[in-house]
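Q: Sequence in, structure out?
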Amino acid sequence: MNTLTPLVRSFVAHFGEMGSRWGINRTVGQIYALIFVAPAPLNADDIAEKLEFSRSNVSMGLKELQAWRLVNLRHIAGDRREYFEAPSDAWEIFRTLAEERRRREIEPTLSMLRNALLEQPTSEEDRVALERMRGMHDLIELTTTWFDDVQRMDQQTLSKLMKMGAKVQKLLQFTGRVGTAVTPGGKRQA
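A: Exactly. Output:
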């Protein structure tokens, strides 16, 4: 990373460290960070040189980033190499990541739960398990429906919605309702 500015080097290193917490390896995180902050599309050789990675590691990392739809392939007239760029809009990146995580993690779980809920309980243990699975299914369904609604919002509306959460929290603190819940009978609980 000797050819990188200190600012870019710091950002790339941080994304590498965070990558493992986000479910990707350090190399992929660093490749993505470099592409994201690059002022122009980069080819695999440029990336390998700047990050001091092997060309094969860069190729594998780029394939993974393409599978996540986080980088776009570009061709430059007169150049046979493939170039890569990342969307510069953080909202677009967030939406893509959320969609991919849903497709990879949430949808398989919902599918399994739907199939399980078709089963008839054969014991008390199964009845309890199915009841809990139904609760999980219903929560995930509610969340994914909400997610679909949010995904259709434009960036400005979504930003307002997110800021509204902080205002609601302040209102709840002001009214003394933070940390309390209302039971179905209307009684407040701490």
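The domain at 6-85 is CATH 1.10.10.10 (Arc Repressor Mutant, subunit A).
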